[in-house]
Amino acid sequence: DGTIVPCCFDPHRKFNLGNMFEETPFKKIWKNKKYADFRKAIIRNKDSFEMCKDCSGELKPEDLD
């Protein structure tokens, strides 16, 4: 349906960050406030998100832009 979520561990689309059919290109979604705020929150405290607690992925400050 075009919904963009932060990762595959969000199958119920709890964190809907945009829609590929409504906003293109993807870069526009990546740079939107909702997605930027989510990335900042993950860097500050990944464990505050249930789906991220056991994730081995790493988001770095340079990934914010």
From TrEMBL:
InterPro entries: 4Fe4S-binding_SPASM_dom, Aldolase_TIM, rSAM_sf. Transmembrane segments: none annotated. Pfam families: SPASM. Residues 1-55 form the 4Fe4S-binding SPASM domain. This is 4Fe4S-binding SPASM domain-containing protein. It comes from marine sediment metagenome. The lineage of its organism: unclassified sequences, metagenomes, ecological metagenomes.
